[in-house]
């Protein structure tokens, strides 16, 4: 299976240099005209302010198959990333990384295809069990699937539902958790993902 072959290329430890440009990517599907819209939000790692944005569409060529959503999204996302003047130093992806039935979610797929360090940040759990983390911001709980650590349930805002952080590519799980918390000073979602989602909906 393609996912299982590509999974062997995932680097689950820290393998990146200084982070000067952070980008998030998001995609939405327009079934009426068979388009995949992809948005990129690039932010400054210190101020967390938007520095660049991209919005484009590509024809949707892969059918919807549960567990294989990344094959629909990645072509448009890669095209959007290619329009940035320079590649980002880190991708924050709205989706699963290793916390996936075949250990190859969207964050892994996008990281391997582009070669960029990537973190998976999902709003809902796909696989795994975890104990509910504390109610305070920064509380976390490991998530296991088939006795394997696949991610962390992380509370990014007091009293809100946790996010599910997992390795995408070239970023370790502890580092991924630290970065997601740093990028989420006010809202539940990390700032780059929040901005990319807003941009992706501008196609009307």
From TrEMBL:
<comment type="similarity">
    <text>Belongs to the endonuclease V family.</text>
</comment>
<dbReference type="Pfam" id="PF04493">
    <property type="entry name" value="Endonuclease_5"/>
</dbReference>
<dbReference type="GO" id="GO:0006281">
    <property type="term" value="P:DNA repair"/>
</dbReference>
<protein>
    <recommendedName>
        <fullName>Endonuclease V</fullName>
        <ecNumber>3.1.21.7</ecNumber>
    </recommendedName>
</protein>
<keyword id="KW-0963">Cytoplasm</keyword>
<keyword id="KW-0227">DNA damage</keyword>
<dbReference type="GO" id="GO:0005737">
    <property type="term" value="C:cytoplasm"/>
</dbReference>
<keyword id="KW-0479">Metal-binding</keyword>
<keyword id="KW-0540">Nuclease</keyword>
<dbReference type="GO" id="GO:0000287">
    <property type="term" value="F:magnesium ion binding"/>
</dbReference>
<dbReference type="GO" id="GO:0003727">
    <property type="term" value="F:single-stranded RNA binding"/>
</dbReference>
<keyword id="KW-0378">Hydrolase</keyword>
<keyword id="KW-0234">DNA repair</keyword>
<keyword id="KW-0460">Magnesium</keyword>
<feature type="binding site">
    <location>
        <position position="94"/>
    </location>
    <ligand>
        <name>Mg(2+)</name>
    </ligand>
</feature>
<feature type="binding site">
    <location>
        <position position="26"/>
    </location>
    <ligand>
        <name>Mg(2+)</name>
    </ligand>
</feature>
<feature type="site" description="Interaction with target DNA">
    <location>
        <position position="64"/>
    </location>
</feature>
<dbReference type="GO" id="GO:0016891">
    <property type="term" value="F:RNA endonuclease activity producing 5'-phosphomonoesters, hydrolytic mechanism"/>
</dbReference>
<comment type="function">
    <text>DNA repair enzyme involved in the repair of deaminated bases. Selectively cleaves double-stranded DNA at the second phosphodiester bond 3' to a deoxyinosine leaving behind the intact lesion on the nicked DNA.</text>
</comment>
<dbReference type="InterPro" id="IPR007581">
    <property type="entry name" value="Endonuclease-V"/>
</dbReference>
<keyword id="KW-0255">Endonuclease</keyword>
<dbReference type="GO" id="GO:0043737">
    <property type="term" value="F:deoxyribonuclease V activity"/>
</dbReference>
């Amino acid at each position: 299976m393609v996912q299982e072959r590509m999974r062997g290329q995932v680097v689950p430890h820290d393998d990146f240099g200084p982070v000067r440009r952070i980008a998030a990517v998001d995609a939405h599907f327009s079934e009426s005209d068979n388009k995949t819209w992809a948005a990129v939000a690039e932010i400054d790692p210190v101020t967390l302010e938007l520095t660049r944005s991209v919005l484009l569409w590509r024809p949707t060529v892969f059918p919807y198959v549960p567990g294989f959503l990344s094959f629909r999204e990645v072509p448009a996302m890669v095209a959007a990333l290619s329009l940035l003047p320079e590649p980002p130093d880190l991708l924050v992806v709205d989706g699963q990384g290793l916390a996936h039935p075949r250990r190859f979610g969207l964050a892994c797929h996008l990281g391997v295809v582009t070669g960029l360090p990537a973190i998976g940040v999902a709003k809902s759990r796909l696989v795994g069990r975890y104990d509910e983390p504390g109610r305070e911001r920064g509380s976390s709980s490991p998530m296991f699937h088939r006795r394997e650590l696949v991610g962390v349930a992380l509370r990014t805002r007091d009293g809100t539902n946790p996010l599910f952080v997992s390795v995408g590519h070239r970023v370790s799980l502890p580092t991924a958790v630290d970065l997601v918390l740093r990028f989420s000073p006010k809202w539940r979602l990390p700032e780059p993902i929040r901005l990319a989602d807003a941009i992706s909906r501008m196609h009307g």
